[in-house]
Design brief:
83% helix, single chain
Length: 236
């Protein structure tokens, strides 16, 4: 089951790439809606599902929050070292060429691992985690394709690079299925907390700041829409 959902997330990356290759201007204009909705989903999922689930497994709240912080800082460190975070400005001079491909590929592996952790916890957490990642992968596919096109890469190579990047998501999940199989509750709670930290970082550092680049108020409201949907799911 994990692999199927992981393939869906990888497919979202390819959908983003195809949108750019087919409708570059349209995808560039409307990607902000998806970005902000995704930010709301990821942020709320971290605080209402991943962290509470970690605390239900391990009641040591201080340790859990340290793991959350570790997840946040680890993503910051990876971004600082290899510059993999999604830059939604195709004029960015940092996220180009092979550096961008390597960064997004590593990011895709981590997404796949997070999906595996979610399903190791329970099916509900696994599906919700995949949903958040799937929503995140669509603008990511738009981003990496836009960067490559802007730097003169042919459409065929853009498609191939995007496909390669997308493949690392199910690879990460496949690895996670073996690495995290029958793990102890202590390790599972730590992995959930670290996953929460990565979601908080991605939403707060990479996605939400993009709201300020778009003057359409509907874009900002999409963040709240993502928050409300996850909260309603939790209440119901």
């Amino acid at each position: 089951m994990e692999i199927i959902y992981s393939l869906m997330a990888a497919g979202a990356t390819m959908v983003g790439a195809i949108l750019v290759l087919t409708f570059h201007k349209w995808s560039e204009k409307n990607s902000f809606l998806i970005i902000n909705f995704s930010a709301g989903v990821m942020l709320t999922l971290a605080f209402t599902h991943l962290i509470p689930e970690s605390l239900s497994i391990n009641a040591n709240s201080t340790r859990i929050m340290i793991y959350v912080l570790l997840g946040f800082l680890s993503m910051f460190f990876l971004q600082f070292v290899i510059l993999f975070h999604p830059c939604y400005n195709d004029k960015c001079s940092k996220h180009v060429g092979i550096t961008s491909i390597m960064g997004f590929s590593l990011h895709s592996i981590s997404d796949g691992l997070i999906i595996a952790v979610g399903f190791e916890t329970n099916t509900s957490i696994g599906i919700l985690t995949t949903l958040a990642i799937l929503l995140h992968k669509l603008p990511e596919g738009i981003t990496v394709s836009g960067i490559l096109l802007h730097n003169g890469t042919s459409k065929k190579k853009v498609f191939n690079f995007s496909f390669l990047t997308a493949c690392f998501t199910p690879i990460g999940t496949f690895l996670g299925m073996f690495l995290f199989k029958n793990i102890s509750t202590t390790v599972l709670s730590a992995l959930l907390s670290i996953s929460a930290g990565t979601f908080i970082f991605l939403s707060a550092s990479d996605l939400i700041p993009e709201t300020h680049k778009c003057k359409n108020r509907l874009t900002s409201l999409m963040l709240f829409a993502g928050v409300i949907i996850i909260i309603l799911e939790r209440i119901i």
